Amino acid sequence: MNVREHPASQAPGRAGVRVRVATLLPTWPIGVMFAGLPLWWASGLLDVVTIPFALLMAWLLTRAHGVRVPRGFGWWLLYCAWALASVVMLDRAVGVVLFGYRWLLCVAAGVIFAYVFNARATLTSRYLSGTLTLWFLYVALGGCLGLLAPTGSLRTPLHHLLPAAARGNELVGQMTIRPFAQYNPGGFLEVSPRPTAPFLYTNNWGSVYSLLAPFVVVYLLHTWRTRRGAAVAVLLVASTIPAFLTLNRGMFVSLGIAVAYLVGRAVLARNLRIVAVVALAATLGVVLFNLLPISERLGMRLNEDAQGTSNTTRISLYEQSLSAVASSPLLGHATPIPPANPLEPSVGTQGQLWMLLVSHGPVAAFAWITFFLAMYARGRRRGDPIGVAACTTLLVGTVQLLFYGMLPYGLPLLMIAAAVAARGPELPTTEGDLP
User: Fold this and answer.
1) Pick from 21, 31, 386: which is nearest to 217 by CA?
2) What is the pLDDT of residue 217?
3) Rounded CA gap, 25 and 20, in Å?
4) 140, 163 in Cβ contact below 8 A?
5) I need a labelling partner for 343 at 20 to 30 A (CA). Which of 36, 315, 402, 419 fits?
6) By the 8 A CB rule, do 126 and 433 touch?
7) 169 has which bridge partners?
8) Which pLDDT score is estimated for 1?
9) How far apart are CA 184 and CA 368, in angstroms?
10) pTM for the complete prediction?
11) Which of 258, 242, 241 is nearest to 398 (CA)?
């Protein structure tokens, strides 16, 4: 591909130097990957879709001129290399499939980062925030589906096409049979349905919802005083209904951090529009919290945890995770390991941090966290809306490492936020962009 000039290249940089755009990377790989969520969900490909799209983006990057990565990206390369080295710890062939799947998701995420970082001229603030707002819409609709049909599930075409042996695999089964909600009406405890669609678990839903919310605010600013802006405002308010009814405590903590940080940064940047939007959304959220039966259901959830010793189980798994690190501190165990109690989840599955420590060891965990903190540091002084939103998402995502897994849904969002934070303020030359 020949070097071409984009109109943005005619705008002066910080020192009055013209910024040259080496190549125009197309927007559609990111757009189709996110806009096609209903198709990927219905087909059973949602959990792997980032891998083929990352291959496509890698091919486009190899054809481009002037491809760069920011200082600090080496930490992600170190993580991927160290995680790959831990494959020698596997003692079962069946574990190779799960290991390879998770590792490829991380490599794909690195490619997505490089693509968004270099596609600054085309993947503008308005385009990215609009695309992620569309994903937010899908998440909200999936949450509503979980409330309306809590016992429902989707058997994807892939489920019927695969042989019985493949369908019997736990990972494949999760990919190809998609529940609408976590709900067991015949269970011992009376528990209200908690939406999961289009993802597998309520924790996935809550994690993605809180990671996307800052970008929805940015898109609302782009479309302020238009019909589309009114629709986004209605979506933001309506989405709180399934969000609250997930009874997801980790999501509540994440949203609280996001609101506090977003408002604080907006005040420092004297961007009163963001303050107004967040304040209005928070006020309406409080109203809905009191109108919906959330307090009652949350009390039932806490009672369920007390009777089912959920918190005790988590603490036990955290202790077992630390013991697993001590037994293999260099390369970890390559994958989560069986728990002491066979009725408990695998050790290393109750949060991304614990998965990193158990699967790949402290060095890999340190490299992962340092990468995202380095990208946050590059953008923390920005006052433009998309920069503030990206840093908010990075901060929320770092906190979520303690109790949420980031694969396969949250990590691509964190990589987009990291790339936006790292590439610096957007040149205000594209029509419709914020000044």
Assistant:
1) 386
2) 87
3) 14
4) no
5) 402
6) yes
7) none
8) 33
9) 36
10) 0.88
11) 258
Question: Residue 119: which pLDDT band, with cuts at 50, 70 and 90?
Answer: very high
Half-sphere exposure of 312 (CA within 13 A, CB side): 7
Contact 88, 328 (CB under 8 A): no
Helix, strand, coil in percent for the chain, rounding step 5: 65, 5, 30
Specify the pLDDT at position 396. Answer: 96
**CA-to-CA distance for 302 and 299, rounded, in angstroms?**
5
- Mean pLDDT is highest, among 140-154, 221-235, 260-274, for 140-154
Structural tokens at position 98: 């799960």
The token pair at 343 is 């009725």
Check if the beta carbon of residue 411 is closer than 8 Å to that of residue 109. Answer: yes
Distances from the Cα of 148 to the Cα of 76, 141, 144, 191, 393, angstroms: 41, 10, 6, 15, 30
Structure tokens at 218: 């940015």
CB neighbour class for 84 (10 Å; exposed up to 12, middle 13-18, buried from 19)? middle
CA distance 366 to 332: 13
pLDDT in tens, 363-396: 999 999 999 999 999 998 887 889 989 999 999 9
What is the structure's pLDDT at 263?
81
Tokens of 203: 């924790």
Q: Which two tokens stand for residue 256?
A: 């609280």
Structure tokens at 388: 């503030």
Q: Which two three-digit tokens encode residue 235? A: 């979506």
* Distance from C-alpha of 133 to C-alpha of 126, rounded to nearest angstrom: 10
- From 278, 281, 273, select the one nearest 243 (Cα to Cα): 281
Q: State how far the Cα of 83 lies from the Cα of 106, in Å rounded to an integer.
A: 10
* Tokens linked to 160: 């019927």
Residue 431 DSSP SS3: coil
Q: How far apart are CA 109 and CA 408, in angstroms?
A: 9
Looking at residue 135, what is its pLDDT?
Answer: 96
For residue 182, the SS3 value is strand
State the first-to-last Cα distance of the chain, in angstroms, to the nearest integer: 31
pLDDT in tens, 385-428: 899 899 999 999 999 999 999 999 999 999 999 999 999 887 55
Which helix (H) or strand (E) covers residue 177, if one does? strand 177-179
Q: Which of 103, 107, 13 is nearest to 57 (CA)?
A: 107
> In this structure, what DSSP letter does residue 385 have?
H
pLDDT for 294: 59
> What sign for the dihedral angle of Cα 51, 115, 135, 209?
positive
Q: Half-sphere exposure (CA, 13 Å, Cβ side) for 378?
A: 22
Q: What is the DSSP string of 330-384?
A: TTTTSS-B--SSTTSPPBT-SSHHHHHHHHH-HHHHHHHHHHHHHHHHHHTT--S
Q: Is the bond preceding 12 in cis, omega lying within 30 degrees of 0?
A: no
Helices (H) and strands (E) in the chain, counts: 20, 4
